[in-house]
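Lab channel / #folding
Pinned by the channel admin:
"Please post every new chain as: sequence first, then the structure tokens as a reply. Keep commentary short and put observations after the output so the thread stays searchable."

First post following the new format, from NK:
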Amino acid sequence: MNRTLKSLAALAFVCLFLIGTQSIAFSQGRGRGGGGGHGQGSSGMGNPSAGRPAGVGVDRGISTSSDRSDGRADNGRATASERSNGRSDQGIEHARLRRENALRAQEELRDHPQMAPRLQMSANDLRNGYQTALGSNPELKFGQYVAATRLASNLGSRHPSVTRAAILSGLAEGKSIGRTLQDLGVSEREAKEAKKRAEDEIKAARKS
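Reply from TO:
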């Protein structure tokens, strides 16, 4: 009887020992699995940069594009910037020229109030027409605009192609008035005479 009880007690002890060992192993397995799952969730969703090699990302992509293209990417960005600045600087310069030339025209009309009437024009017509012409050619001088107006008036009846707009277009291309008149069908001699006549008319109109 005693031997039977001892055998049952030993068997129970072994069973309890096996159950306890399995419980400990199961708990440890859950701890490792949960930790791994949490870490993956954190790095994969909460922190997209976790787990990436150092330097991988947008910044590294920009730098490596320059490396792979032997600096051509950097040169392209620099060139685009320089071109933009060039256009901006040119626009500022043109605006400055238009403003300065318009002010000089205002001063001349104020200093010579009889010039416009003597040229059979109004001061407003000269002023407004000149400001419009400056939009296409910021370097146009007021005297050139007045000369183009007189030449068109003096030559237009004999040479229909000679208009103020046509003369101003030639000046905008960098041509002289004489060259522009010849391109419009006026002979060299007649162009010189017409230019001299216009200059004399303007000089006389400025006298007040």
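NK: The radius of gyration is 46 Å.
TO: also worth noting, Residues 81 and 185 are 45 Å apart (CA to CA).
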